[in-house]
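Bug report (template v2)

What were you trying to do?
Predict the complex of my protein with NAP.

What happened?
Run completed; filing so the output is reviewed.

Input:
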Amino acid sequence: MGANNLTVLGSTGSIGVSTLDVIRSHPQRFQVFALGANLQVDRMFEQCIEFTPQYAVLRDHAAANTLKQRLNDAGSSTEVLAGDEGLIDIAGATDSHTVMAAIVGSAGLDATLSAVRAGKRVLLANKESLVMSGKLFTDAVNVSGAELLPIDSEHNAIFQCLPHDFSSLSSAGIRRILLTGSGGPFRETPLEELASKTPDQACSHPNWSMGRKISVDSATMMNKGLEFIEACWLFKAQPKDIEVVIHPQSIVHSMVEYLDGSVLAQMGMPDMRTPIANCLGWPERIETKVPSLDFYQLGRLDFSAPDYQRFPALRLSMHAMESALDYPVALNAANEIAVDAFLSETICFTQIAEIIEETLNNWQSSEPDSLEAVKDSDLRARQYAAQRVNKRKLQ
Ligand SMILES: NC(=O)c1ccc[n+]([C@@H]2O[C@H](COP(=O)([O-])OP(=O)(O)OC[C@H]3O[C@@H](n4cnc5c(N)ncnc54)[C@H](OP(=O)(O)O)[C@@H]3O)[C@@H](O)[C@H]2O)c1
């Protein structure tokens, strides 16, 4: 097994493309073992021709057949697999050492867990899998000895501000974690205008270029809420240990405050190639094409408290984590249904948080003590949230 043999799950998405861009700059260091995605044939075909992986997987069977035909015609030796099983197989394959987990949403859960159970170095972008199955996930990491490196810029920043032998906040002398967030495109929009915001406006993030689902999550600040939950699991923190700070410039990616009053911050341009390179090269530093920060041009950095009236999804996420059990599963599922409905213009922007709140208020909670239980809660919450969407559609 080559130490730098990589599998990229979600290779056709925003994180996947940035990952391959970093890999492109280090052809001697990294070898792509497998690529996986959903149904984008053209982009997957181009990636297979350029990176010559042993395997390429598309979840959609028809798309996988088309890819197979096109790769055959092009004389490629890449073997094409299909379906969720194909993704699970490449994630756990013995021939790769590192797995980039960058499938979006709950769809990434099975393949990410497969990589964890196989004891890989897992570069975790798919925050939803940890939100849904936090305890199962971290237990699986402990059993298999998998190495979990956080890709989310905030968690990667926290990771960089922690001692290398970090085991707990108290033993490392940490007072609190400061999780920064830009506030997204609607940070200063008059509240009465939020309901009329379109999917394209919600996806126009001022600082980051990302996939559509996470862009909407950034506009509602659900993204920060999911990150809050993710940070609790990754750094063995309680909700009270983490404070969210609005920082519109997205230059400070998060901070750690120590008992002596020292605050360590990680800064850099808002470009996902930095945290990706940090994890790909870890513990070494590797070069990226990310430009240097120009402090003279920056001039100032601003910080403020979050406005929970503007961002109810953030408050709901914190409550879901405090309530524990399978509340985070219900939160995530309701959010995915509501964001899909917003992107297809079935509901308006402010109804995303309403649907999540109604789902949580009516939630019959249970202990998510197995993957089946997690999936059952996920399905129940989706069904409930879909009913709430339909109710609004009919109005
Ligand atoms: N973008 C960022 O800057 C950023 C930052 C931090 C964390 N993250 C996290 O990283 C993950 C990916 O985000 P993204 O912005 O890269 O998303 P994205 O651009 O929408 O890409 C999603 C990827 O997942 C694949 N996919 C979607 N549904 C799938 C399914 N059912 N089965 C298998 N593959 C599926 C897509 O394949 P097709 O293209 O074939 O549909 C695509 O490769 C998310 O969990 C997000 O929260 C992203």
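What did the reviewer find?
Residues 153-311 form one domain. The chain has three domains: 5-150, 153-311, 324-395.
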